[in-house]
Design brief:
The chain is mainly alpha-helical and 604 residues long. It is 37% helix and 8% strand. The protein has helices at 2-13, 34-37, 44-48, 85-91, 106-122, 135-164, 184-188, 195-210, 220-224, 233-236, 246-261, 263-266, 270-291, 303-308, 327-332, 349-354, 382-385, 456-471, 482-493, 507-511, 516-526, 533-539, 588-593, and strands at 77-79, 166-168, 171-173, 317-324, 345-347, 388-389, 394-395, 398-399, 427-428, 448-455, 549-554, 563-569. The strands form six sheets. A two-stranded antiparallel sheet has the order 1-5. A two-stranded antiparallel sheet has the order 2-3. It has a two-stranded antiparallel ribbon with strand order 4-10. The longest helix is centred in the first third of the chain and has 30 residues, at 135-164. The two termini are 45 Å apart.
């Protein structure tokens, strides 16, 4: 943690704001001139700090959508704030335009890219010395920094491609790409590269990072187990969990190629899509092989300690940032017991319905699932209990009452209006620990939280989707099939309850000839509230206008038994999104500034 803190201090020295109009032009703060920063004989630490701001592409929280989880912009969840961007996008017609588009990464990503190229222009020169006391350390830190820089270039370009690729006059286009420091005049002439060219450009940077000085992990144990490599513990040892590894490189490559193969971006080119799917599966399998078995962390009764607050020595996390805060809990606790908390994130009935029963069958399979609408929360997938706070669930030693007159309704202690009441009659459990109390006089712990750029389970899900599309459910790629990968994900989750890692122990999975819907559903469950669904439904070509549903709860006997209605809409007059909104909008200011930069079709 100490090393990463030092990086963040350097980052603060270099915060600037820039768009394409001054893309890659000098723009240092008032205290440091370009001449001072690039005088590497005198100030090597300034040069080292040039690429550090690009770590800002790794978010410090999952609430990146104007303060809400990005899932609140999908059918997974709702923000309870009527003034939030997430609420208005579903209730105000024409709320999104190219001048008011909330997925706004353009300036930050290009600012980071600018400084990385500044670093690469001088930072790896033979005569620059970062560690005077030890020549091996100086060589190794330059190799590691080279790998970091190229990974960060790839990550920032991936985020730009994810957010801004789209059709121009019907042809899927990528983003402006450059491979060096350029002048302002050159920047104003930039055009968007073809999509496939953008993909391969990013892959090339990932491959460079893989062959530079990155390791599969950074730890004293790894250093000591490779004595022949003469690795320096100050460069590759403990305390560097926030730096990219070769595993992170392959995780990024797998995600990039999976997106590229998807229907929204492959534009009907089946041969190209098949190639991307195969390469995505191969990269994902490298991640799986490097990490080994999925860690055994999914236990509802101990999930806080086993997973949600385990920022160190957590094999599920591939690249993460961490901070110690009560803010996640304060924003999302149910407002029961008179607590001054916000209850902000409200999972939808749609998401609740996605969780299967504990025997692995979806609740829609009336013949096999054993689902009952009278007891809808009984015997569900264990991941449900780690994700959703539902009516009468116990949380913080209290049953959370969702009915009128219950302890989370208007009129309960400290709830004078509905500003903190759930819009769906569900609250968020995932990431939210029971460690803080928010009760005066009661001891409270400030928990650690992490935001993971990649998780181990994503590699299995990427593999399953890519392999299924490339070769089908049961053909092996590098010794694993799509069906086997899904079985490992579901087995770690504890479904079926009495199953093992064999496909035969999961009758529902074994019975399917087409895995597509199950792959999508497992991805939805596993990766909810991690920023994936917004992009997944778009790249898959799925419906952007699914009606978001809520639960209505009533009781005739003060909470002994309950009546449920799961068919009510959350949003009054939910607006429809035209299909061009499947793709992002390049900021209008950039379009107006650069005459060669073309907007995605449909955006005004």
């Amino acid at each position: 943690m100490k090393n990463i803190s030092n990086y963040i201090l350097l980052l603060l020295l270099f915060i600037v704001s820039v768009g394409c109009s001054d893309y890659f032009e000098p723009n240092f703060n008032n205290n440091l001139s370009e001449e001072t920063v690039l005088d590497y004989e005198l100030n090597p630490e300034y040069v080292e700090g040039l690429y550090v701001p690009a770590y800002g592409a790794i978010p410090g929280s999952y609430t990146t959508f104007s303060g809400d989880f990005l899932d609140c912009a999908t059918d997974n969840a709702v923000s309870n704030d009527y003034n939030s961007t997430a609420w208005k996008m579903h209730t105000v017609s024409n709320f999104f335009t190219s001048g008011n588009y909330p997925i706004y990464t353009w300036n930050n990503n290009y600012r980071y890219i600018k400084n990385i190229y500044k670093f690469l222009s001088v930072g790896l020169n033979d005569d620059i010395v970062y560690r005077n006391s030890n020549e091996d350390r100086n060589i190794q830190i330059k190799k590691r920094m080279e790998g970091e820089a190229h990974f960060l270039l790839a990550l920032n370009y991936f985020q730009l491609l994810r957010d801004y690729a789209g059709p121009v006059d019907g042809e899927i286009m990528g983003i402006p790409i450059v491979d060096k420091v350029i002048t302002e005049e050159e920047a104003l002439e930039l055009k968007r590269a073809p999509y496939a060219e953008s993909v391969e450009f990013i892959v090339a940077h990932i491959d460079t990072a893989l062959t530079s000085g990155l390791l599969p992990e950074y730890s004293d144990e790894y250093v000591n187990s490779h004595p022949d490599d003469n690795l320096q513990s100050t460069i590759y040892g403990d305390g560097l969990a926030g730096l990219p590894t070769t595993v992170a490189c392959n995780a990024l490559k797998s995600r990039l190629l999976l997106y590229a193969a998807s229907p929204a971006f492959s534009a009907g080119n089946s041969a190209q899509a098949a190639g991307y799917y195969t390469r995505s599966a191969e990269a994902a399998k490298k991640v799986i092989d490097a990490l080994g078995n999925l860690p055994d962390i999914y236990h509802p009764n101990t999930i806080d300690d086993d997973f949600f607050t385990k920022v160190d020595a957590n094999p599920e996390l591939i690249l993460r940032r961490a901070n110690q805060t009560k803010a996640w809990e304060e924003d999302n606790y149910p407002p029961s017991l008179g607590l001054s908390v916000q209850g902000s994130t409200n999972p939808s009935q749609n998401l609740v319905d996605a969780f299967p029963m504990s025997n692995g069958y979806p609740i829609t399979d009336s013949a096999n699932s054993e689902y009952s609408e009278d007891m809808p929360y009984e015997n569900r997938d264990p991941r449900f209990y780690m994700t959703i706070i539902y009516n009468n669930a116990e949380f913080h030693n209290l049953n959370i009452q969702m009915w009128n007159g219950g302890n989370t309704s208007v009129g309960a202690a400290n709830i004078s209006d509905d500003s903190r009441v759930s819009r769906t009659n569900y609250y968020l459990r995932k990431w939210i620990t029971e460690k803080p109390s928010f009760v005066a006089g009661v001891s409270s712990e400030t928990p650690w939280h992490f935001t993971a750029m990649f998780r181990a389970v994503e590699a299995y899900l990427n593999f399953a989707e890519a392999a299924n599309n490339a070769v089908g459910p049961d053909v092996m790629i590098d010794g694993l099939s799509a069906r086997q990968a899904l079985r490992l994900v579901r087995n770690r989750a504890g479904i079926p309850a009495d199953g093992d890692s064999s496909i035969a122990s999961d009758p529902y999975l074994a019975s399917l000839t087409d895995l597509t819907d199950l792959i999508k559903n497992e991805r939805r469950i596993e990766l909810c509230f991690e920023g994936h669904r917004f992009y997944d439904i778009r790249r898959w070509g799925d419906d952007l206008n699914t009606t978001v549903k809520k639960s209505e709860v009533s009781t005739d006997d003060n909470g002994t038994t309950f009546n449920y209605n799961f068919n009510e809409n959350v949003y009054p007059n939910q607006v429809s999104f035209p299909d061009y909104m499947r793709y992002g909008a390049i900021p209008r200011s950039e379009i107006l500034t650069s005459s060669n930069l073309k907007q995605n079709d449909g955006w005004k």
